[in-house]
Design brief:
Chain lengths: 253, 467
């Protein structure tokens, strides 16, 4: 049994008057992939955006309850959000490379955090990040080209490289393959398998098959509540909850 | 008379609309046939047939009536023994006849004039009567024709669509033709100017003093006179003054406008934004003449005062005062355009930057602004072209003497100011002085056209990037 990296207790999230998450208690294990599944609007994305406090960007969003990483309270007002996001990287639904060169896309994060003082150190970080995201061989000769000139799947791997570049501990992935074709998806999934050796990964997905393929643990959300959580194998073969059973067999959602 | 006619045509058309609508309805019910279009389309069909031919006829008639009457009357007067040597004298007699007819002529009226005035009254009457008769004839003919069409259950919808398309086309044609007309009038007058003054003497001359050519017939300038005129129309001081004042204006408008745009787009809460955005846009609604006297009466003297206290000579009509006020005037353009541009940078880029731990200002500086840069450049160029074309502030605050200087405390002048100065008051339209205004206008037009083109290209290029 691996260590618990992130622990949420009685987590509630409100958007204005509307409550988006109800009393979520979920533990995420270190160096493991946790998949979050559930119908659209059920709060999966809201949950992972709590982990790196991306919800701060939304004015009307209010988070109560407790969420801890290695025993440190993430919601603490005095917590340095910049330092938190250095530890918790994120990959978004749609690839969102900056309108800069491939090199600058990767070196952006390290520069902000003061890593890579010299050009050669930066070069090394860029190369390592691109290698880890399995993009190096494809782009090593054209690092000066804009990131937006890559294909959709390459762009998404570039975004993963960008997240890795600051050497995080946790990577959040919000439906990272929903805008990609099956071949690009397969590449990303392969990559996730590789990355879990180093990082704790949380992935939101609408594809049951993907959850089965990549994750060790699965949580099922419905209408803002965490209905069931457990080993992926168990959730998909023999869920305790009738609703989970109905969802994974495609009866609703 | 014409107003009454137009009114009658409209009344008639509106009633035909309802007639056509109900008529087709009854036909379809009575004969149990499926109409080719909704009843209201038959109404529109009648309206268009009733009004357009009559209105077009009225327009054409009104355009030609005065010229025809004039030539007839002048001929009658000549037949009765009126003597005139050229066109101007003929025109004068015609105006006299008209005035007699209207009862506003107070000179001596001889028998020729009297007879002609009677003839004039007769012709006016005849023309008016025939106009009314013809218009009603046209209306009746077109209404009868269109009613017949309707009874045959024609495809009224298609016809109405075609006519509406035609109307829209004519409207855009008017807009385009007017613009072309203006451009050509600029062009032809400029050509006249350049036939007197060598275009190179104009473009590269460094002295502007057009009053030297005052009341001098362009067609009869001798070589000796031209030597004297040659360096009176040098364009350089004007373009230098214009660019200089525009430059000072941009020094004020770009930073302030851009920063306020960034604040509005990135930092302001919805509440602040709702209040402050309209307030900034009010600046754009202040008439430029108000800015002008603010610059001339408040800011200019204030600078002179401050300058005196510091031991500097500051002209009370300084480039600095004009440029500063012009910059303030342009702030809302820059701020509101860059606000829009920054707002259209996708949120996902900001999220991506926040997610690697960038702060808000880092995100704005390194991701948002670079992404929005082409659009921001576009908005700045639009502001420049406005600064160059701005007239009122510089007329009031920048001075008239064409000094070639880069001292912002001295007075300079601009292209627009000189155009105003040249055309104010009585003009000799064949003097090179007057014609030079058109050359200046053409130059200014080309300059702003080029700037606008580049700006719009930049904005467009930016838009394509995220779609």
């Amino acid at each position: 049994m691996s260590n618990i990296k992130i622990k949420s207790k009685n987590l509630d999230v409100f958007y204005g008057d509307k409550q988006a998450l109800f009393d979520v208690n979920l533990d995420l294990n270190e160096k493991e992939v946790t998949a979050l599944i559930g119908p659209s609007g059920c709060g999966k994305s809201t949950f992972i955006r709590c982990i790196n406090r991306m919800n701060d960007v939304i004015d009307i969003c209010k988070v109560t309850g407790n969420i801890e990483m290695d025993g440190m309270d993430i919601n603490d007002k005095s917590l340095d959000v910049v330092a938190l996001r250095e530890k918790v990287g994120m990959v978004f639904q749609k690839p969102n490379p900056f309108p800069k060169s491939i090199y600058d896309n990767i070196s952006y994060g390290p520069k902000i955090h003061g890593k890579g003082e010299t050009k050669s150190e930066l070069d090394e970080i860029v190369e390592n990040s691109l290698r880890k995201s399995a993009l190096w061989e494809e782009v090593k000769d054209r690092l000066d080209e804009p990131g937006t000139s890559l294909s959709g799947g390459q762009q998404q791997r570039l975004c993963i490289a960008r997240a890795i570049s600051v050497n995080p501990e946790v990577i959040l992935m919000d439906e990272p393959c929903s805008a990609l074709d099956p071949i690009a998806t397969a590449k990303i999934e392969e990559l996730i398998d590789e990355l879990k050796k180093t990082y704790t990964i949380v992935i939101v997905t609408h594809s049951m098959a993907q959850a089965v393929r990549v994750s060790q643990k699965t949580g099922f959300f419905h209408l803002g509540k965490l209905i069931e959580v457990g080993k992926t194998e168990k959730i998909f073969k023999n869920p305790d909850n009738k609703m989970t059973q109905d969802y994974i067999t495609g009866r609703f959602g | 008379m014409n107003i009454v006619l137009i009114f009658l045509i409209s009344i008639f058309s509106i009633s035909l609309f309802f007639y056509g609508k109900s008529k087709t309805k009854t036909i379809s019910i009575k004969d149990n046939i499926k109409l080719n279009a909704l009843p209201k389309f038959y109404g529109y069909y009648l309206v268009l047939w009733c009004s357009i031919p009559a209105l077009v006829f009225l327009l054409v008639w009104s355009l030609f009536e005065p010229t025809i009457i004039k030539s007839i009357i002048i001929e009658t007067a000549a037949n009765q023994g009126a003597v005139f040597n050229d066109k101007n004298e003929a025109n004068l007699i015609y105006e006299k006849i008209k005035a007699i007819h209207l009862g506003t002529y107070f000179g001596d009226i001889d028998s020729i004039l009297k007879e002609s005035a009677l003839a004039y009254a007769k012709f006016i009457n005849l023309f008016t009567n025939s106009k009314v008769v013809l218009i009603f004839g046209i209306i009746i003919a077109s209404v009868v024709y269109s009613l017949k069409k309707i009874r045959n259950n024609n495809k009224a919808r298609d016809d109405v669509e075609v006519i509406l398309k035609g109307l829209l086309f004519v409207s855009s044609l008017i807009a385009i033709l007017t613009t072309l007309g203006i451009i050509f009038s600029l062009l032809f007058e400029s050509i006249k100017f350049f036939s007197v003054i060598n275009i190179f003497d104009y473009l590269f001359g460094t002295n502007w003093s057009p009053q030297r050519a005052f009341v001098r017939d362009a067609s009869s300038i001798t070589a000796a006179e031209y030597e004297e005129l040659k360096d009176a129309f040098g364009f350089i001081p004007l373009i230098a003054g214009t660019s200089f004042i525009a430059f000072i204006a941009m020094l004020v408008a770009v930073p302030v406008g851009l920063f306020s745009g960034i604040y509005m787009a990135e930092y302001a809460s919805t509440k602040v934004r709702r209040v402050s955005k309209p307030i900034i846009e009010i600046l754009a609604g202040i008439p430029t003449v108000v800015y002008g006297f603010f610059a001339a009466l408040t800011v200019g003297p204030f600078f002179r005062q401050v300058g005196e206290n510091l031991g500097l000579t500051v002209s009370s009509e300084s480039a600095l005062a004009a440029g500063l006020i012009m910059g303030i005037m342009i702030i809302p353009y820059v701020s509101s355009l860059s606000d829009d541009v920054i707002n259209s940078v996708p949120q996902s880029l900001r999220d991506g930057s926040y997610a690697v731990g960038a702060t808000k200002s880092e995100t704005i500086k390194q991701v948002v602004i670079p992404a929005a840069l082409p659009g921001i450049i576009g908005s700045v160029l639009l502001a420049v072209s406005r600064a160059i074309g701005e007239t009122m502030i510089v007329v009031m605050a920048a001075g008239l003497a064409a000094n070639l200087t880069i001292n912002p405390l001295e007075s300079t002048t601009t292209i627009t100011t000189q155009i105003v100065m040249i055309l104010v008051g009585d003009q000799e339209f064949d003097s090179p002085k007057t014609q030079s205004a058109f050359a200046l206008g053409l130059t200014l037009f080309i300059a702003t056209l080029v700037l606008n083109y580049i700006a719009q290209r930049a904005v467009k290029k930016y838009r394509e990037k995220y779609d």
